[in-house]
């Protein structure tokens, strides 16, 4: 049975991924900051008869990452999905105004944490059969795509570009160990992050559809596509 660990699994795309993998009969380790208050996730745990379990993880906290590693010990992981992310704090950071602390927090959560978590759980991936490391990125990372809109997203754009660069480095440096790296744009998704505009737009997609497509892209990941930047439909995105 495939064993998948997902960060930020209490809502949005992370929760939808947990539901999709459980429906596909995978074993899911669903991580979030506070499992005791994650109502939808607790309902999923209760309804899936032991296939889904929760563990606490604040991706911005070194001690929390170390505690996660202690909790899972030597357990093999087939798929590790770095999904947790923030829009920026504050979301609006522009040519006119950069919030230094907020920028650093955004980089910490979106770009650095996925690498630290991958390092902490590398041995678990090596013990797994699939050895797939996945980062949920954004088209806002791309300087070749979607660069004309949203001029107030400097921190978010930079953090996702840095995420992509770090993940591409791991794809190169861990290839000899058989670790495959997926860098995936989930689409414009109707979640809290997608916000009111996504909720009102016919061009957005549901978290369920995004998760279904993402699980298919992860299943298709091979050495040939490891380190590529793909969208939820499998199309290649510009860096
Ligand atoms: N929605 C879109 O249109 C879209 C587009 C492109 C990329 N993405 C990417 O997709 C991923 C998921 O986004 P989403 O739309 O599902 O967003 P969301 O609904 O806002 O959910 C974000 C998730 O990340 C978690 N998170 C944030 N900071 C965390 C931390 N320090 N430690 C642990 N968990 C933390 C949140 O947990 P809490 O509940 O504890 O805050 C929540 O579970 C993100 O990486 C995002 O950048 C989304």
From TrEMBL:
* Pfam families for this protein: adh_short (PF00106)
Q: Which SUPFAM superfamilies match?
A: NAD(P)-binding Rossmann-fold domains (SSF51735)
Name the UniProt key words of this record, in alphabetical order. NADP, Oxidoreductase
Domain of life of the source: Bacteria
Determine if Zinc is one of this entry's keywords.
Answer: no
CDD domains attached to this UniProt entry: carb_red_sniffer_like_SDR_c (cd05325)
Q: Which InterPro entries match?
A: Fungal_SecMetab_SDRs (IPR051468), NAD(P)-bd_dom_sf (IPR036291), SDR_fam (IPR002347)
Q: What's the family?
A: Belongs to the short-chain dehydrogenases/reductases (SDR) family.
Output this protein's name.
SDR family oxidoreductase
**What species is this protein from?**
Bradyrhizobium brasilense
